[in-house]
């Protein structure tokens, strides 16, 4: 048995096409062009690359990208002032603070400086609360992208046992909340989990989001499971031992080309939402649904 791939690049392309259509409808009807402000602190090469990729995708679909670059010595207070100014600007619809920020900055305080109605990356406490409780908010982009990807391939979530490895506030925690809202049974695993191989081995769906190369061994995977690798490490290596996991799983995401493209596509779709672009069932996909 060899798993089929969950092609995030293909699904993301469809979402970007739909978002481009919405952006054009907004421009033609009102003259408004959505604007995403990206804030980058310091000169980390990986962060520079991510911001450039997002700007390129914006240009591809007609969203204006406002790039704000701040010196690595920027203080938390200075960053908060910049985020407040962008939140108050009528010209900006969505705000992305590229993370991680330099260690001396209080990242959580910076996230909370973003106005909730412009938090298109889904990083504020208000967005997390909305995700957990099921009221309208912007979902954290990678978790939302993961569920949209599962939906695109018709993978059943309700009633499935899901192991989430990782508990970060912008990935592990919110993806578990979205899965709970879709009636999955969720087990959170982390660095203190004593029986990680057993927890993974019982899971119908495995979400790897820990940031350690090939931490999840292929031999742990339950036969017929769905494996979503949200990790990206040096050398194009994910958090899952891909070659071995593929021999046991039914579905698996590649790295790269799985989760990453979905993250950017959701970010731009939510920027269009924030700008008021027309929405419809065929173009606006919602990852989380309230529990009935």
UniProtKB/TrEMBL annotation:
Tetrahydrofolate dehydrogenase/cyclohydrolase catalytic domain location: 6-121
Domain Tetrahydrofolate dehydrogenase/cyclohydrolase NAD(P)-binding: 140-275
Top-rank taxon, per record: Bacteria
Pfam families, alphabetized: THF_DHG_CYH (PF00763), THF_DHG_CYH_C (PF02882)
Catalytic activity: (6R)-5,10-methylene-5,6,7,8-tetrahydrofolate + NADP(+) = (6R)-5,10-methenyltetrahydrofolate + NADPH; (6R)-5,10-methenyltetrahydrofolate + H2O = (6R)-10-formyltetrahydrofolate + H(+)
GO CC annotation terms, alphabetical: cytosol
Purpose of the protein: Catalyzes the oxidation of 5,10-methylenetetrahydrofolate to 5,10-methenyltetrahydrofolate and then the hydrolysis of 5,10-methenyltetrahydrofolate to 10-formyltetrahydrofolate.
Family: Belongs to the tetrahydrofolate dehydrogenase/cyclohydrolase family.
Protein name, as recorded: Bifunctional protein FolD
UniProt source species: Mycolicibacterium moriokaense
UniProt lineage: Bacteria, Bacillati, Actinomycetota, Actinomycetes, Mycobacteriales
């Amino acid at each position: 048995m060899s798993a089929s791939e969950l092609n995030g690049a293909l699904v993301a392309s469809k979402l970007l096409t739909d978002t481009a259509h919405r952006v054009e409808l907004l421009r033609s009807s009102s003259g408004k062009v959505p604007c995403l402000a990206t804030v980058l602190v310091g000169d980390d090469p990986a962060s520079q690359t991510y911001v450039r990729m997002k700007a390129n995708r914006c240009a591809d679909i007609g969203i204006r990208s406002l790039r704000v670059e701040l010196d690595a010595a920027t203080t938390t207070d200075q960053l908060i002032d910049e985020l407040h100014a962008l939140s108050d600007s009528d010209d900006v619809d969505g705000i992305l603070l590229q993370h991680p920020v330099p260690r001396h900055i209080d990242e959580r305080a910076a996230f909370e400086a973003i106005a909730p109605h412009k938090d298109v990356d889904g990083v504020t406490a208000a967005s997390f609360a909305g995700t957990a409780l099921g009221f309208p908010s912007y979902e954290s982009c990678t978790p939302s992208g993961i569920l949209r990807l599962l939906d695109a391939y018709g993978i059943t979530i309700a009633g499935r046992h899901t192991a989430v490895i990782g508990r970060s506030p912008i990935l592990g925690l919110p993806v578990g909340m979205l899965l709970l809202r879709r009636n999955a049974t969720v087990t959170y695993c982390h660095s203190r989990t004593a029986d990680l191989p057993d927890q993974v081995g019982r899971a119908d769906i495995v979400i790897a989001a820990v940031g350690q190369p090939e931490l999840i061994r292929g031999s742990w995977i339950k036969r017929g499971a769905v494996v979503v690798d949200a990790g990206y490490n040096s050398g194009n290596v994910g958090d899952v031992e891909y070659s071995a996991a593929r021999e046991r799983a039914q579905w698996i995401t590649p790295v790269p080309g799985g989760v990453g493209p979905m993250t950017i596509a959701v970010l731009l779709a939510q920027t269009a939402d924030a700008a008021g672009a027309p929405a419809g069932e065929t173009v606006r996909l919602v990852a989380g649904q309230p529990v009935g």
